[in-house]
């Protein structure tokens, strides 16, 4: 059976990857908790592809196992594309371990001056599969979605942005059940399965 390390400490993201890969029978999913604790890599490049590569290569070379990593950020058009790359830290204004509630409050404060109720935002993300023989493969996407200034509670743990996300068909992030083959989730699943075919 092939082994695949999902290189993230985010429990929500880890669960997402496990759900997206649950149809594949010949892959054993490993997590960082299965290995000796080491320092985290420094993600200091300028694109989602580069940062995904940093993480995947770092953990693959540390543990000598095929590694999948991703990176993403979002850009609010009405805020001149901020927060950009450091989305969780809001361009270094917040600590990396800021709570979901504090992050959401910070977000609402930042957009409070925007007169319209719905804002436009972009969500670039990339995944990198890095193999012990130094081959690596990328997958990337760029999604445009809308944000509301009025959050809906409760939000999904580790995803505070989910409380304000609205999709192109009018549905809200919190209205979509986990088993709904929603368009961009299905795209992500199809692409991810294609990516891990390189194992």
Residue-averaged pLDDT: 88
Radius of gyration, rounded? 17 Å
**Top CATH class:** Alpha Beta
**Major sheet attributes:** 8 strands, mixed
The percent of residues in helical segments reads 25-40%
The tally of beta strands, per DSSP, is: 8
The number of helical segments is: 4
Number of domains: 1
CATH topology heading: Maf protein
- The secondary-structure class comes to alpha+beta
Order of helices and strands: EHEHEEEHEEEH
Shape: globular
Distance between termini?
A: 11 Å
CATH architecture: Alpha-Beta Complex
Structure description:
- The chain is of the alpha+beta class and 199 residues long.
- It has helices at residues 11-20, 48-63, 100-111, 183-196; strands at residues 2-6, 27-31, 67-72, 74-76, 83-84, 118-130, 136-148, 165-166.
- The chain has one domain: Alpha-Beta Complex (Maf protein), CATH 3.90.950.10.
- It is globular.
- The relative contact order is 0.16.
- The mean pLDDT is 88.
């Amino acid at each position: 059976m092939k082994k695949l390390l999902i290189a993230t400490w985010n429990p929500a993201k880890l669960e997402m990857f496990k759900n997206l890969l649950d149809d594949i029978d010949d892959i054993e999913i490993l997590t960082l908790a299965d290995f000796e604790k080491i320092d985290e890599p420094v993600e200091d490049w300028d694109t989602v592809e580069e940062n995904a590569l940093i993480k995947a290569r770092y953990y693959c070379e540390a543990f000598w196992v095929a590694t999948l990593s991703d990176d993403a950020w979002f850009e609010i058009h009405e805020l001149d594309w901020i927060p950009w790359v450091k989305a969780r830290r809001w361009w270094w204004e917040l600590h990396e371990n800021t709570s979901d509630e504090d992050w959401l409050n910070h977000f609402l404060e930042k957009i409070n001056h925007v007169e319209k109720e719905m804002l436009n935002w972009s969500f670039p993300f990339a995944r990198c599969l890095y193999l012990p023989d130094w081959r690596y493969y990328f997958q990337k996407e760029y999604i445009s979605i809308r944000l509301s200034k009025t959050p809906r509670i409760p939000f999904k743990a580790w995803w505070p942005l989910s409380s304000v996300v609205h999709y192109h068909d009018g549905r809200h992030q919190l209205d979509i059940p986990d088993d709904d083959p929603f368009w961009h989730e299905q795209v992500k699943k199809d692409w991810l399965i294609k990516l891990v075919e390189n194992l």
